[in-house]
Amino acid sequence: MAFFAKLKKRLFKSSSKLEEGLDAIVDDGGVIEEADQELVEELDKKTVSQDVVEVEIAVEPLVAELFSESEQQAQIVPQAAEVKEKKGFLGNLISRVARPAEKRRVLDDNMLEALEELLIASDMGVDAALRVTANIAEGRFGLKLSTEEIKSLLSQEITRIMEPVAKPMPFYAQKPQVVLLVGVNGSGKTTTIGKFASQFKSAGKSVVIAAGDTFRAAAVEQLQIWGERAGVPVLTAPEGSDPASLAFDAIEKARRDNTDLLMIDTAGRLQNRADLMEELAKIVRVIRKQDPDAPHNTLLVLDATTGQNALNQVEIFRNLADVSGLVMTKLDGTAKGGVLVALADKFGLPIHAIGVGEQIDDLSPFDPEDYAKALTGQEF
């Protein structure tokens, strides 16, 4: 929860932009009035038990004032039972107290169109935006909604899309388990591999990193720094060496040392450079000479600030390197954090982790519900 509270704070660009857009949609033709009771009851279903507990707590001191200590036991229990029996009434009562009159707008075709445009502008993608708005409209068309109610409904629908892809990176009995990290220039592969290595080492796994970006001395030095932070060895090769040869040697060494995880970094490459992409394909072929099932995990690291271009990257890297999962970085640097929803909706690839900073602990397993709340600006 602490990580996603940090995510929410850092996603202010996305959440504030989305919230401003929702306010504008509701303001355009909205009126100040009470909520539709039907919607209130629907949104309260998940919190009615909490409401009952709050009412029971509120009832107890009142009973204490009216009755002696010997009478309290006889009074509190029946009143608590009565509260639970009438939870629908009390849920509505609490909702009215908690939700004062505010501006609401009728959910009609014009409002749905405006909502679709807002979601598309947040990089959620056309297909996902249409699906989300259609699900929100189902059974609610014609109801009057406030900004907070729309945010709640949006969060529920985004969570529904993201839940099937929220999966941690799987571990296998195979030793070494070969993990290949790929992506375009500047996507955050090097920092991601260092953060992963630290987490796996802390989990009791023996880890070794291969610095496969042999064309940039700075990349090797950066990875060595991360290796020192994580407490794991980093295998290197002379600048300009064949990265496929380094990968081959790294697997041999990891096998001799009975290492649990071998994480291979690769040079950043643009998906439209055929020569660089062929070089990556060569690395995969050489790895499979050592182990036909390797790499066991091929993680594509994506930069959230690239927006819809991330979809093109997934398409090309998946075809070339059999990408098995995604890692999204730099969510704190974009006003369009909805691209993760578009990726989940189109490809269905597991999202193993997301990052929002440069610290070693700024990488966390993907939690769809907390992400949806952070994106829509809801309270945790």
Characterize the largest beta sheet: strand count, sense, and whether it forms a barrel.
8 strands, mixed
Low-confidence stretches: 47-87, 89-97
The domain count comes to: 3
The CATH homology group name of the largest domain: P-loop containing nucleotide triphosphate hydrolases
Tally of DSSP helical segments? 16
Q: What sequence of helices (H) and strands (E) makes up the elements?
A: HHEHHHHEHHEHEHEHEHEHEHEHEEH
The CATH class of the largest domain? Alpha Beta
What is the average per-residue confidence, as pLDDT, rounded to a whole number?
Answer: 81
Topology:
Layout: H1 2-10, H2 12-27, E1 31-33, H3 37-44, H4 48-66, H5 69-85, H6 87-98, E2 102-106, H7 109-121, H8 126-137, E3 144-145, H9 147-162, E4 177-182, H10 189-202, E5 207-212, H11 217-230, E6 234-235, H12 243-256, E7 261-266, H13 274-290, E8 297-303, H14 309-321, E9 325-329, H15 339-347, E10 351-355, E11 363-365, H16 368-376
Parallel strand pairs: 4-7, 4-8, 5-6, 5-7, 8-9, 9-10
Antiparallel strand pairs: 1-2, 2-3, 10-11
Helix pairs in contact: 1-16, 2-7, 3-6, 4-5, 4-6, 7-8, 8-9, 8-15, 9-16, 10-11, 12-13
Report on the architecture of this protein.
The termini are close together. The longest helix has 19 residues. Helix 7 runs antiparallel to helix 8 and helix 8 packs across helix 9. The protein is built from 16 helices and eleven strands. It has 380 residues and is α/β, with parallel strands linked by helices. Strand 5, helix 11 and strand 6 form a beta-alpha-beta unit. The strands form two sheets. The protein has an eight-stranded mixed sheet with strand order 6-5-7-4-8-9-10-11, sandwiched between helices. A three-stranded antiparallel sheet has the order 1-2-3. It folds into three domains: 82 residues, Up-down Bundle (Four Helix Bundle (Hemerythrin (Met), subunit A)); 66 residues, no CATH class; 191 residues, P-loop containing nucleotide triphosphate hydrolases (Rossmann fold), CATH 3.40.50. It is 56% helix and 13% strand. The radius of gyration is 26 Å and the shape is elongated.
